[in-house]
Design brief:
The protein is mostly helical. The protein folds into two domains: about 5-235, 2-methylcitrate dehydratase PrpD; about 245-350, 60s Ribosomal Protein L30, Chain: A, CATH 3.30.1330.120. It has helices spanning about 5-15, 20-40, 45-50, 55-60, 80-85, 95-115, 120-125, 125-145, 145-160, 175-195, 210-215, 245-255, 270-275, 285-290, 290-300, 310-315, 320, 330-335, 365-375, 380-390, 395-405, and strands at about 265-270, 325-330, 345, 350. Strands 2-1-3-4 form a four-stranded mixed β-sheet. Helix 5 (about 80-85) packs parallel to helix 8 and helix 8 runs antiparallel to helix 9 (about 145-160). The N and C termini lie far apart (about 55 Å).
């Protein structure tokens, strides 16, 4: 008889985490801290500071604001903004335990996310629907769960999975940030309940009234396996825009470096990139980050696709360049997606994008991102160095707590 899927995933989560995974987790921690630093002055940060006295909980509102959070392509979700607050939410946990918790959180969130289909992504916000799984696994790791406890915690977290995409049609709302907060709290509470004796339906994924039946039409298999941890397959985002705009930005930057980025600009890419980012006339900062037209105009203007390139001032300045950008779907890119996020700009084609495992960014690049976003968020250079030191070399988990407390007031 086949074991329930969550039982098998629980066994994977109970494996020892190695030094290699911890080192990879440190890079993702620094990347997440950079995103938090850059979002300090936003409305979401003010809300978080009002809601909670805990730095890790306030940070749930900041990690995805700038659209620079890490991403897993096949699962179509952003693990960092959910997993790191959960992995940092036990004040007494040493640094190594927090890193292990993050690795397990990434594993659970991505493994189940990979099994969700296009029907799910068209309607549901995967970072929200899968986030509870990641938070439950991360907090369960901090508690010291065994295989069966992981399975029960995932089952209960998944039993209330949710998060609709409709907030995309309501500009200016903070629903996307609320989704992250909700996923962290829900997953964390699910693990805590299991610790005190609660059990859950272990066939929650594949059961007749389970997650797959409710949220998919053609579910796939769980991602990953018993050897490599899925955190190694996560992409970093070097540009301050929706991930669906990154292939076009990357290709345009390559053309610019070659001296061949000339108007008019033609962008050919996969269907979902157009669904999310075909926006020729953005009116707000968020809309500009979800605009292929604006993204290419940013590069054509000689900019680096940093947060300041998507402000209302930049939107007004770049209107003439945006008007010269046309976007269309190319079925070859759609067929490769989501395993590959690609685009063609003025004839130059990229199959994979900077920051993907096939085209990784260096540690130095992530450190530079930390410094850039710290400046954008109003922090002194010394604070960026503090974050780099604590994330990449530190062994004091409480020092990370103190950093977040200092940053988000």
């Amino acid at each position: 008889m086949t074991s329930p899927l969550l039982t098998m995933l629980g066994a994977r989560l109970a494996r020892p985490v190695t030094k290699g995974e911890r080192q990879r987790a440190r890079l993702h921690l620094l990347d997440w801290l950079a995103c938090v630093a850059g979002a300090r002055g936003t409305e979401a940060a003010a809300l978080g500071a009002t809601i909670s006295f805990n730095g890790w909980e306030r940070a749930t509102y900041l990690g995805n604001v700038l659209e620079m959070d890490d991403v897993h392509r096949a699962a179509l979700l952003h693990p960092g903004p959910v997993v790191w607050p959960a992995a940092l939410s036990m004040a007494s946990a040493p640094m190594e335990a927090r890193l292990d918790a993050a690795v397990r959180g990434y594993e659970a969130m991505i493994a189940i996310g990979v099994a969700m289909d296009a029907h799910h992504y068209a309607r549901w916000h995967p970072t929200a629907t899968m986030g509870g799984f990641g938070a439950a696994a991360a907090f369960g790791s901090l508690i010291g769960f065994a295989q069966v406890e992981y399975a029960h915690a995932l089952a209960n977290a998944g039993s209330v999975a949710g998060g609709l995409w409709h907030m995309r049609h309501a500009p200016g709302v903070l629903t996307k940030q609320w989704h992250i907060h909700h996923a962290v709290r829900t997953g964390r509470d699910a693990a805590l309940h299991v610790h005190y004796g609660a059990t859950g339906p272990l066939e929650l994924l594949e059961g007749p009234q389970g997650l797959f039946a409710a949220m998919t039409q053609v579910p796939g298999t769980l991602g990953g396996g018993d050897e490599d941890w899925l955190i190694h397959a996560v992409s970093f985002k070097p540009f301050a825009a929706c991930r669906h705009a990154h292939p076009a930005i990357d290709a345009a930057m390559e053309l610019r470096a070659q001296g061949r980025l000339d108007a008019p600009f033609t962008v050919e890419t996969y269907a979902d990139a157009l669904t999310f980012c075909d926006r020729p006339d953005p009116q707000t900062e968020l809309e500009a980050k979800f605009s292929l037209q604006h993204a290419v105009a940013v590069v054509a203007d000689g900019r680096k696709a940093e947060p300041q390139d998507f402000t209302p001032e930049a939107i007004a300045t770049l209107a003439p360049l945006r008007a010269q950008v046309s976007v269309t779907e190319d079925s070859t890119f759609t067929a490769r997606y989501p395993a590959h996020f690609g685009a063609r700009v003025n004839g130059l084609e990229l199959v994979d994008t900077l920051g993907d495992p096939e085209r990784p960014v260096s540690e130095a690049h992530i450190v530079a991102k930390m410094h850039s976003l710290a400046r954008w968020g109003g922090l002194a250079a010394g604070e960026a160095e503090r974050a780099v030191r604590l994330a990449l070399e530190g062994d004091d988990g409480a020092a990370i707590d103190a950093l977040l407390e200092d940053w988000i007031r």
